[in-house]
């Protein structure tokens, strides 16, 4: 029997291969079990990769981009996006400026400078080139995401002759650097560089079936879907006890998700007056709780629970009766998230609980909940429809149990990690041999 072939892979992504961020979790789950001498990463964020996933790594910093460093000194450490990494869109730049305690003109200047400094490439010093030569990658996997990162991928591919496999987890090409005439040249360069890169690749990866299909049409490249994987228990978890029905949200509050959570909390508050007992428990990163927590804290039906470590999430989900997935209804936000797939959603499914999805019905993650029978979707920003759906959930415990078991079956059948990793390995092995 032939041993499995694992090509030497260089992962280029701002987020480290660890369980500190959603993006890091996605790639860590796919690369778990990869031989440690055949996987390396170039990253930006700290801490670096978990040693049991990737031991060979190199951090890029502002020292690799002198112009970026200069602008940071002029405007302050946080006034230029880190190393040209595009930031998610905002539904209201003026409101965002107010929330961050800065003038709107200063926020706009920061966004414009971020776009223009992204045009400046990384400087690769001799020490870095020696490190690269020593590892000698055969395949480069990257989520791209910025002009500078695309340029780095192309430069390293030219030096090492490694094949490029783009792996997309957001539809950033549709929204990055839009909405301001001063950012039009960087946007043109971003899309030009991306099209040029796509002409040189044979296959890519995407986090949803919808994204894979659309990218295949958009760029003429075969994209394979790799749904986020999760270890689901062999049997559906037993339902939790208690008289109070706990709705639980675990995730980020940005991209206007806090607004959708606020609407759910307000509807639950109204239902409490009818004698029903329910609570919306919100777990989020500490930074997001500081920024958005006060907007949610005025509703007694909402309880801010703090921040969970990666290992604490499964138990928190199992203690709840209903798991909440939300997205924004704002036009700019729904364009950005239309093809994306939440990293938490497979964990929700594995917990064996009904999922309440509240977000635009055209979003891939929201439709997935309804199409798999894993929960209920409120796909319109309609307060009465949301209230009626919450009432249905609270009034029908048998329905909650039935949909929870359907969610668990979906996790077992469609998000099983061993099969997903093997398919990923085979894709990269076949690319390396071309």
Sheet/helix structural class: alpha/beta
Number of strands: 13
> Domains counted in the coordinates: how many?
2
At CATH level 2, the architecture of the largest domain is 3-Layer(aba) Sandwich
| CATH class identity of the largest domain | Alpha Beta
CATH H-level superfamily of the largest domain: Glycogen Phosphorylase B
Strand order across the largest sheet: 3-2-1-4-5-6-7
Write the CATH fold name of the largest domain. Rossmann fold
Give the termini distance in whole angstroms. Answer: 23 Å
Largest sheet: 7 strands, parallel
Radius of gyration: 22 Å
In which range does the helix fraction lie? 40-55%
% residues in beta strands: 5-15%
The coarse silhouette is globular
Number of helices: 18
List descriptors:
434 residues; alpha/beta; Rossmann fold; 2 domains; six-stranded parallel sheet; 18 helices; 14% strand
Architecture overview:
There is one protein chain. The strands form two sheets. A seven-stranded parallel β-sheet has the order 3-2-1-4-5-6-7. The protein has a six-stranded parallel β-sheet with strand order 10-9-8-11-12-13, with helices on both faces. 45% of the residues lie in helices and 14% in strands. It starts with 8 loop residues before the first strand and ends with a helix. Helix 6 (147-160) runs parallel beside helix 8. The chain folds into two domains: 9-63 and 119-229 and 416-433, 3-Layer(aba) Sandwich (Rossmann fold), CATH 3.40.50.2000; 245-414, Rossmann fold (3-Layer(aba) Sandwich), CATH 3.40.50. The protein contains 18 helices and 13 strands. By secondary structure, the chain is α/β, with parallel strands linked by helices.
């Amino acid at each position: 029997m032939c041993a499995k072939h694992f090509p030497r892979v260089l992962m280029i992504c701002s987020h480290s291969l660890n369980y500190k961020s959603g993006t890091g979790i996605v790639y860590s789950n796919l690369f778990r079990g990869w031989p440690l001498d055949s996987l390396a990463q170039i990253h930006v964020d700290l801490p670096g990769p978990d040693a049991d996933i990737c031991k060979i790594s190199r951090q890029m910093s502002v020292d690799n981009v002198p112009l970026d460093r200069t602008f940071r000194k002029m405007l302050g450490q946080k006034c230029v996006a880190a190393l040209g990494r595009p930031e998610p869109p905002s539904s209201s730049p003026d409101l965002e400026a107010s929330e961050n305690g800065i003038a709107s003109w200063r926020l706009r200047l920061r966004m414009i400078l971020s776009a223009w400094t992204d045009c400046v490439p990384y400087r690769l010093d001799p020490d870095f080139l020696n490190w690269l030569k020593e590892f000698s990658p055969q395949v480069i996997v990257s989520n791209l995401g910025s002009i500078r990162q695309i340029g780095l991928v192309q430069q390293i591919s030219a030096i090492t002759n490694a094949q490029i496999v783009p792996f997309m987890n957001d539809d950033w090409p549709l929204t990055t650097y839009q909405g301001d005439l001063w950012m039009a040249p960087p946007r043109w360069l971003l899309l030009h560089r991306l099209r040029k890169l796509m002409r040189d690749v044979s296959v890519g990866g995407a986090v949803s079936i919808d994204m894979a299909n659309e990218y295949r049409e958009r760029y003429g490249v075969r994209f394979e879907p790799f749904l986020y994987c999760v270890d689901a228990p062999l049997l559906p978890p037993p339902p939790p006890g208690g008289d109070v029905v706990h709705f639980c949200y675990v995730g980020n509050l940005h991209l206007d998700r806090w607004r959708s959570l606020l609407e759910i909390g307000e509807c639950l508050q109204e239902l409490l007056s009818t004698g029903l007992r329910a609570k919306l428990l919100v777990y989020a990163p500490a930074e997001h709780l500081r920024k958005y927590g006060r907007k949610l804290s005025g509703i007694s039906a909402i309880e801010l629970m703090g921040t969970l470590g990666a290992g604490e999430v499964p138990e928190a989900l199992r203690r709840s009766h209903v798991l909440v997935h939300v997205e924004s209804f704002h036009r700019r936000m729904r364009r950005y998230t239309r093809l994306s797939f939440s990293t938490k959603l497979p964990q929700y499914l594995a917990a064996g609980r009904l999922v309440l999805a509240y977000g635009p019905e055209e979003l891939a993650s929201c439709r997935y909940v309804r199409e798999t029978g894993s929960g209920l979707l409120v796909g319109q920003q309609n307060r009465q429809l949301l209230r009626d759906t919450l009432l249905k959930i609270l009034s029908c415990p048998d329905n909650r149990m039935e949909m929870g078991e359907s969610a668990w079956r979906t996790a077992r059948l469609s998000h099983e990690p061993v099969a997903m990793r093997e398919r990923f390995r085979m894709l990269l092995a076949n690319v390396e041999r071309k």
